[in-house]
């Protein structure tokens, strides 16, 4: 990652913009946060991966997301979809339907979001999940098979599947959902991992989740609350080495 | 608050978006930061309260604010107005006029903003107040009586009135105005308190102001400047208990 | 700076909004982050300086930038241009062409951006420079002579020129490019310095760069990574005194 410093375009929400860029920088990637349809057709093909998070959508941004995803598909560039609160409004459902048709390489969401995206009943309110990860595993497999995307359901224990293989990632810390935009930033990190490990997008996704969760475990050691935890998480990502990740990753095939 | 975890929709400015979400999470609420008219009519009735801050307005956002406030009023949902720099431009004055007609439950601003909103002469420049809190007390009472809203004027000592009763809140720290978006985040916190203590919106507002100010006092103890202060404030909000708030609140009827 | 507390209007990107406001507050300035064409004609003449950063452009924001720059020029107000990733898309090139015609007092960018703005070949990808500062010195001088603006090329060693005189600023720390939005925030700080030291805009620019770089050096002493570094940088800016700046500035005429 640090040797390649992949250029990752992020179209994300207003809440996550700064945190996602800092997460990418700390991990060794080069973030590019542009979003407008007016310039993305020209820019996206220059990137190594694209991350799209629909957190604070509006018509102009939705147009930019679709233009960027289309440009990525045309250029053979992997892109990652984060369907924030997709079950909350029909506007989000329609937008995600359009984006799914543009063939994301990876989809990352919480259990309620993956359930809603797969067309199942979900109970999420706002951006928080009201469903446990296990409840979304079958939906994740079905969605992966239908969309040809790797699907990651994140929560206390993450579940990743490409429709055939599956993994559970046990890394993470209970403080993580107490800091806003960490899920959104993880999506951007998945895009960076997929950019440098394109041969196996499922394994790249698993590695990104383990890396982020392990950084959270390290950050929690010295933190006194979500404020100091968020600061320490960036420090821990920056200090992460491949050796530390190999030692600390807690991944099991499922 | 933590037991109820109220869903609070925030339409706030680009500067405050991340901080306001983290303040709500640290306090135990569940933030939802969506703003577009295209989806807010469907979403707002699902929330327990709404917070609107006009800090970085534009036509599309203004339309979303009015749609959300209208949906909140129709659903009987309390909403809080933060009229940032309302005296600075006629665009903001017109927007706040439209929003006032949609009956906010609480209005929170600095002295210059409350003076301007009440139609009095104000001297604020940008988002900072140039008037002392005391100079806005009569305007706050008049505005509360005219609008049926609780009005909170924040500054070194805060003043809260529902037009009949009034309180002064002495909590806070001089470092707070040195960190951007803390006033905006306080507005979101007021919405969260009003969501869980709907029976008396004035007392809920007073409690939110005391809680935020007390967290500031605690944060200041170990901080070496506004950077570390902002981090410690989130930690202090997260660690706050009802008992600590009862002990530390410095509120007097006025 | 602290005695004058200049009102600095910032039209910046979504990533930098919060950080830039906190940098201005820590340095003693008063930030105003409004951007819409609908209100900027009325507001800009009230400010003491204007900072425009094109980082996340779109048509509505571009219109606001041009309106604000035009209002600043009409009012004799100095304004600073940050041409983020101008070489990346023709949309950014056209926008910067329009903005250059509105006569910025200072232009600050990395080497790739200044090369692209001056019409030379640049190799930057996204917002990061792929060219060394030295490679952009001749382009900076030519751009300064053509535009009558002070041009600052920032990097490991900064280069500042007004087309006749030139300086190198050696302050800074290798951690600075690992935190997003620091360049954008520096542009806002340059605007604040130019507001209070209008007599010599080149010297004001040099002072802003030295101040920010020195704060970075101080922050690096206790930081364990880019997260804690960003927090400490705000603390260090807030603690900076004119005496400390005089002692720590490492500036040489070129």
UniProtKB/TrEMBL annotation, chains A, B, C:
Enzyme class: transferase
Pathway assigned in UniProt: Cofactor biosynthesis; thiamine diphosphate biosynthesis; 4-methyl-5-(2-phosphoethyl)-thiazole from 5-(2-hydroxyethyl)-4-methylthiazole: step 1/1
EC number(s) per entry: 2.7.1.50
Binding site for substrate: 33, 181
Gene3D superfamilies: 3.40.1190.20
Range of residues in the leader sequence: 1-36
UniProt feature coiled coil, ranges: none
Identification of the protein by name: Hydroxyethylthiazole kinase
Role of this protein: Catalyzes the phosphorylation of the hydroxyl group of 4-methyl-5-beta-hydroxyethylthiazole (THZ).
InterPro entries, per the entry: Hyethyz_kinase, Ribokinase-like
Entry keywords, A to Z: ATP-binding, Kinase, Magnesium, Metal-binding, Nucleotide-binding, Signal, Thiamine biosynthesis, Transferase
Keyword Cell inner membrane: no
SUPFAM superfamilies associated with the record: Ribokinase-like
Lineage summary: Bacteria, Pseudomonadati, Pseudomonadota, Alphaproteobacteria, Rhodobacterales
